């Protein structure tokens, strides 16, 4: 599927006089349709009856095989799903943080063989910034000596995390946030309630906003934001309130709230929580922005270990205490 706001990127890709490159890098923020674009590129390259605009017909044998996730000339590499740790105890799967080198080595035979039923073989890697360093080096060797019949599509939200040598061997297509009105219309068509607030919460990325349709999310957000906006909030009260939220969820709400506090203090603007403008402005006008910035640096450090914290409760308590101290320190 090619979203309307990504049509220009599709046209640019298929307008290349030299044809499609052997390696394509799709880079841009989360939630703008890069993964859907990568799938559209893959199915189109495998399709035997593409349209004049380069899109798959959706009806030929290759398209049917692709839709059924059984095309022999297609591989999708993502961080492996594993039953580990607390998630295994709860009966849920967790995503590994990396794409291991074995996953790349497993592609050697696939790359060396001729296509089974199409003119090309397609490998999509997403997110490519999750490649283990050894995996990245193994991939680099493949990109340096490309097979004539194999094309790679790399998808990333953090292109700067990729090896420069990998980036240099890819034809890069950048994606950006669509116009807010276009995103709002798209969300309205999908029956998303309060699309303006959903877009703000998702950093104006429409696909990310669509995923916030779960009422549980909005209930948690209201609970945390109401607490954060409480005058003279005590750390102990916040610690009790966040116990049921989980560290990643609490961190996300807290970071957006603090970002808005900083923005309100500096420019009087609210990005993520426009429906809490009154509470944010009331706090921002009094707090010491320097102390808030120091606390936000701590939030960024915590973000690096959110998926596997050594002690989630201890980190949550530290953040709760840090926030209450930051907002309690007023400007002289």
Written account of the structure:
The structure is a single chain. This protein has 332 residues and is of the alpha/beta class. The protein folds into two domains: 4-174, P-loop containing nucleotide triphosphate hydrolases (Rossmann fold); 214-328, Zinc Finger, Delta Prime, domain 3 (Up-down Bundle), CATH 1.20.272. It has helices spanning 7-14, 34-46, 61-67, 85-90, 101-105, 107-112, 133-144, 164-168, 180-189, 195-201, 206-210, 215-228, 235-242, 247-267, 277-284, 289-303, 312-328; strands at 23-27, 74-77, 81-82, 94-95, 121-125, 150-156, 171-174. The strands form two sheets. The protein has a five-stranded parallel β-sheet with strand order 2-5-6-1-7. The protein has a two-stranded antiparallel ribbon with strand order 3-4. Helix 7 links the parallel strand 5 (121-125) and strand 6. The longest helix has 21 residues, at 247-267. The chain is elongated. 33% of the residues are buried.
Kindly list the characteristics that best describe this protein.
two-stranded antiparallel sheet; Zinc Finger, Delta Prime, domain 3; Rossmann fold; alpha/beta; single chain; 332 residues; 50% helix; 2 domains; five-stranded parallel beta sheet
